[in-house]
Design goal:
The N terminus is likely disordered. This protein is α+β, with helices and mostly antiparallel strands. A hairpin with a 5-residue loop joins β8 and β9. The protein has 15 helices and 11 strands. It has one domain. The structure holds iron/sulfur cluster (2 copies). One iron/sulfur cluster (SF4) binds next to α12 and α13.
Length: 440
């Protein structure tokens, strides 16, 4: 295996070479004992029915306008403007100048499909490309990402008749416009030709790196405020920096790393890859719950031709617990989460629901319009029992019990109500908190 000098990657952690990095504790995927690996995910998938999805239909692209029609769509933004004006004038808790400044501080690194390409290639260094087993490569990438801020890292393989369908057919565009076509073809080099409207993923790039950026529960559990909104946006800021660093890292090892051409979401269905790679399970409202941090992370992905060791789906009882719990449905302000006990193959949201997934129907236009009108919501994240007590060891009792059988699920839902209520924290106290680094 090639061993380059990695003198100092962070001030606290030093490695003499890549071999040391591979064998460090950062490279391990440590999971709680109560997680079971499974051959298939707890969310059923019909790969025969599923098709590649066009990003253009996502709510944050043209999806909301298509679902609501022009008049209602314009109305959403009129209401949002009016509300913002009133909140600012009233200086409501969560909308003081300091709160607005917190959420307005966004700063981004440039982000692209091909990456910055500012690191040397092996050819430029006169070295052969890095070689190792898929397991060693997985450990290397995991250690690299964790050193740079990721909290969990898993891997999935792209297979023509299954997981390839989780790659968007058209990638992210600008605003509501149609993005470039994403072709997956047998070629050596990737192409990013937005002028003619297409990108190319070479068929040999068969591995997906899925990584998470943990969000602060101190922020997130103050939903419907500028403070709560920052829990998402600061992780998107970090993603824009981290993706380019990962692309440069793999470039110097001699491999391609195809990234998301958006600060938020692009390239493929993050939650699908997260579930199939064993990162977590799909929740009632379509986001992924992980054993370590529940819903408190943003999930990101890139594609590479560096062979990696794919993970297996896990069963930690979430799919069963969501049938009983329904706490997000009870507390969702615009009632965008269903109360149905059983998941279904329902695709009522024809323009934006990709068929082939047995999950709970989620009218995304209701949720998305509400988010835009309020400037950020995430009440569902704050109320979810998996979001509570993340630093308290006894909370593992709840998760371990739910993972082993469903008999006590109702009890655990009631216990969560007693201990955490709606999960929200006092807004006015925020600036007086003695916060830990990153707010968790
Ligand atoms: S973000 Fe808000 S509106 Fe959307 S599902 Fe969650 S609670 Fe409901
Ligand atoms: S609040 Fe309950 S039903 Fe909703 S996602 Fe969390 S565990 Fe599932």
């Amino acid at each position: 295996m090639g061993a380059s000098s990695v003198a100092s990657i962070s001030p606290q952690i030093k490695f003499n070479d890549l071999d040391e990095m591979i064998s460090s504790h950062l490279s391990e995927l440590k999971r709680p004992w109560w997680i079971k690996e499974a051959d298939s995910p707890t969310t059923e998938i019909d790969w025969q029915v599923m098709k590649r999805f066009d990003y253009h239909n996502v709510m944050w692209a043209a999806g909301l306008r298509n679902a609501l029609g022009d008049d209602k769509y314009e109305q959403v933004f009129r209401i949002a403007d009016e509300r913002r004006l009133v909140w600012r004038q009233l200086e409501e808790p969560g909308y003081t100048l300091a709160d607005i400044a917190l959420n307005a501080c966004n700063h981004w690194a440039a982000i692209s499909f091909l990456g910055p390409r500012t690191s040397p290639t092996p050819e430029a260094l006169g070295a052969p490309r890095w070689k190792g087993t898929p397991e060693e490569a997985s450990r290397l990438v995991r250690a690299f990402l964790k050193l740079h801020g990721a909290s969990q890292v898993t891997f999935a393989e792209i297979e023509t008749n299954t997981t390839e369908k989780l790659i968007y057919s058209y990638d992210v565009g600008s605003g509501e416009s149609q993005g470039p076509r994403l072709d997956i073809i047998d070629t050596d080099e990737p192409v990013d030709n937005t002028a003619t409207g297409y990108r190319v993923i070479p068929k040999k790039a068969r591995w997906v790196i899925i990584y998470t950026l943990r969000m602060s529960d101190e922020l997130m559990r103050r939903p419907l405020t500028q403070i709560g909104s920052r829990s998402h946006t600061y992780m998107y800021n970090l993603k824009s920096l981290l993706q380019g660093q990962l692309q440069n890292f793999l470039r110097t090892l001699g491999y391609m790393c195809l990234g998301e051409a958006s600060r938020y979401n692009a390239l493929g269905i993050h939650s699908g890859f997260a579930v199939l790679s064993g990162l977590g399970e799909l929740s009632r409202f379509g986001h992924v719950i992980t054993p370590e941090y529940g819903l408190m992370q943003r999930v990101q992905m890139v594609i590479t031709d560096l062979p990696l060791a794919p993970g297996k789906p896990i069963n930690m009882g979430v799919n069963q617990f969501c049938r009983t719990c329904k706490k997000c449905a009870e507390n969702c302000p615009p009632q965008a989460v269903t109360y149905a006990t059983e998941p279904s193959w329902d695709t009522r949201g024809k323009t934006y629901h990709n068929p082939g997934i047995k999950s709970w129907y989620w009218p995304q236009e209701v949720c998305n319009a509400w988010i835009r009108m309020t400037g950020g919501c995430a009440v569902c994240y704050a109320v979810c029992p998996y979001s509570h007590g993340l630093n308290i060891p006894f909370r593992d009792l709840f998760k371990a019990s739910v993972a082993s059988n469903s008999l006590l699920n109702r009890f655990w839902r009631k216990t969560d109500d007693l201990l955490y209520g709606k999960g929200e924290l006092p807004i006015g106290e925020f600036w007086d908190l003695d916060l830990k680094p990153w707010g968790y």
